[in-house]
Amino acid sequence: MVCIVNLIIFGPPGAGKGTYSFRLQRLIGITKISTGDIFREEVKKGTELGKKVKPYLDAGQLVPDEIVIEIVKEAIKKASPKGFILDGFPRTVEQAKALEKIAKIDAIINLIVPDEIIIEKMSARRICKNCGEIYNIADIHKVIDGVEYILPPMLPKNDMKCDRCGGELIQRDDDKPEVIKQRLEVYKKQSKPVLDYYRGKVPFIDIHVNRGPEIMVKVIIDKLKEAGLIQE
């Protein structure tokens, strides 16, 4: 596919931002920039940055703007010439304003999922501790507000081992129910205004995530094509 496109993927915690941005990176060649991934790697390494952000991550709170903005600025400089997709940034209006000075955003992918689905889905998420590949052990099939959600599990071929690298699959501390609920409240309070900020400024691609990733990633790509942002 041919593209030079800079995207932001929005949605509550557990909506699938990491899954879809990772798949778009592989399918269309843009760089996935995840502030969460960057911070968790720094915590794992025990760097100064890791020590600064660990208390916020453990408590399910947002990392201060000045730290996040600088990290994203450096990551964008290293991104693919085909573009990038931002996962987890911006989360505040202040971050959105700072981003305008760094790069032009061509579209926002807005993932829509009810809280009930988010909590069930996130509690069942498992991450490869080596490469970050994402799996899920939940098998969801229910109707909420007239929308049917059929979300099959994303299981590894070998029990609790990553298909990609063979690494151990783990549950992140911030994927536990009590932290998930707090993260949802933080998202609604602080990040929702960012959507209002972008409305009318940047094209929105609204996606109701009611099927598995194999189906939904095709929906996203089709909508990017319809918007003229990518071509075969």
Record keyword descriptors for this entry.
single chain; 232 residues; alpha/beta; Rossmann fold; 5-stranded parallel beta sheet; 3-stranded antiparallel beta sheet; 21% strand
Please, could you describe this protein's structure?
The model has no long low-confidence stretch (mean pLDDT 91). The chain has 8 helices and 12 strands. 44% of the residues lie in helices and 21% in strands. It has helices at residues 17-28, 35-45, 48-59, 65-77, 93-100, 115-123, 177-198, 213-226; strands at residues 2-3, 5-10, 31-34, 83-87, 107-112, 125-128, 134-136, 140-144, 147-151, 169-170, 204-208, 230-231. With 232 residues, the protein is α/β, with parallel strands linked by helices. Helix 2 crosses helix 3. The chain has a single domain, classed as P-loop containing nucleotide triphosphate hydrolases (Rossmann fold).
